[in-house]
Each structure stands twice: as structure tokens, then as C-alpha cells.
Amino acid sequence: MPLTYFIDGYNVLHHSALLRPLLKTDFETARDALVEKVARYCVASNNQARVIFDGRGRRAESTPVVPNVPGLEVTYSPGHLTADAL
Q: Could you give the 3-state DSSP secondary structure of residue 53?
């Protein structure tokens, strides 16, 4: 039975030694890189992941690129909730 991981996307970005430097120079690229890494993990491990980003203050044009990978879901929390709350 596959495992399901719930990932607070912005929390991981701010604490990842690999992605934090990219976050400081190109926010959208860092976010897309995280989603891509999680997608590769889902494919390689046959596990599932839900990457949740905080939705407060989100601009419609800044939605991350989401690969079409079974078991991967990328969502934003509603404006009144944080990713932690979900």
C-alpha cells in the first residue's frame, strides 16, 4: 500500500539547503523545482504526495507548473487558512 506524504511547500522551500538559495533569487522557479522533485519521488517510489502552499496573497498567474504524475497533487490553502491548518 503506497504512503501519502503531506508537504507544506513553503516550509520546505525555506528550510531546504538545496532550494533556499534559489528561493532568494527566483521564487517561482524554486517552487517549480520543489514540485518537480516531489513528482520524481512519487514516480520512483510509487508513493503519493500532496504539496500544499499557503494561499494567502497568491496571484493567479503564479501557479506552479504541475507535472501530470499519478499520486501527486498540488494545492493552495484557502485564503483564510494556512497550509499548516490543512
A: strand
Q: CA of 55: how far to CAs of 10, 17, 29, 31, 65, in Å?
A: 11, 24, 17, 14, 16
Residue 58 above 60 pLDDT? Answer: no
User: How far does CA 36 lie from the centroid of its chain?
Assistant: 9
**DSSP E strand boundaries for 17-85:** 48-53, 72-76
Please count the CA atoms within 13 angstroms of the CA of 33 that sit on its side-chain side: 14
- Average of pLDDT values for 34-53? 94
3-state secondary structure of 79: coil
Beta strands in 1-86 (DSSP E): 4-8, 48-53, 72-76
